Amino acid sequence: LSAASESLAFSSIPSATTRLLGTQLAAMAPLDQELESWASSAGYGQIDKAIPAGSSGWASFRKVTVTNPPESDGKPVSFFVKSSSRSAEEMFHGEALGLQAMYECSQGEDSLRIPKVYHYGDFSEGKGSLIVMEYLNLAGRSDDRALGKAMAKMHLAPATEEAGNPDEAFGFPVDNTIGGTPQPNPWTKPNSGTQEWIEFFRDHRIGHQLDLAGDAYCSNLWEKDIAPRLHLLFEDLQGEKEIKPSLLHGDLWSGNIGSADGKPSIFDPAVYFGHHEAEWGMSWCAGFTQTFWDGYNAIIPRDEGFLERKPLYDCYHQLNHYNLFGGGYISSARGHLESLKKKLDAKEKAK
After folding, report:
1. Cα–Cα distance between 184 and 234 in angstroms, integer?
2. According to the model, what pLDDT value does residue 2 have?
3. Number of C-beta neighbours around residue 20 at 10 A
4. Which residues are catalytic?
């Protein structure tokens, strides 16, 4: 919050109270001061309680309540606050836009429960940043059919300005990360389709991860035998079945799935707009049951070439795991690439 915004927020308070509040804020730690200023300017009163809720290697967490909270479904909202010593652009900009996009694409009945983002930015005084979102009482994974239906609804939500994609393109407004790996998200052209998706995934997903991995065998296999023929895997997705941008969580495995308020919830995303099938590249450690697929495919039926493309989408995540953790993941990635080559050889032979 800028100094001008703080002055505006406090202009309606009697001057003596303003001076007292200003003195109190000056005595607080930067995060406490920032939260008090934000709550006041947003019309939420003052901070009532701020309870530590853990930390990671890069951020600290709090559950915060205020004296005049907003409501959601008739209930007062508590806030989940992440703070960091690093800048908001570096730490929270991508997360905020990703959550906002998932929130916009998960409205209505039978949808995902996604926390609303209320604020993010740098501290107005001192070094650091924060993001303030709705606090959810997260519980374990519950109804797999409901999860499948809710994921399908998010994938079918239109690409809109509110969701961050007014041009119906593949990509995202900002680059982000998947785990600790940078994930580039440059926009394709407006009203993109299957060809633009092939190029996006070729260059900014598999090609990007292979550059980071530095494995000569995988890179040669990709560049010589797979990438030039990648279009053959998408021959069933032309014309009326042209691929259109779907909002993807981007890193959907069992550790990022839960429930809140009786609805399925997903979190810790690596959001971008892409082909809905790419969402399932982590299904090897997501534990999706047949009940889940029944719910999903009742809304989005499985396309003919789904199983042929699956090694492509799995390979992205296996390569990412290798870049994050090393070890045997490179062998799994090689296996997927070899499988793709065999499929493409067979397709060419059949022509």
Report:
1. 23
2. 37
3. 12
4. 251
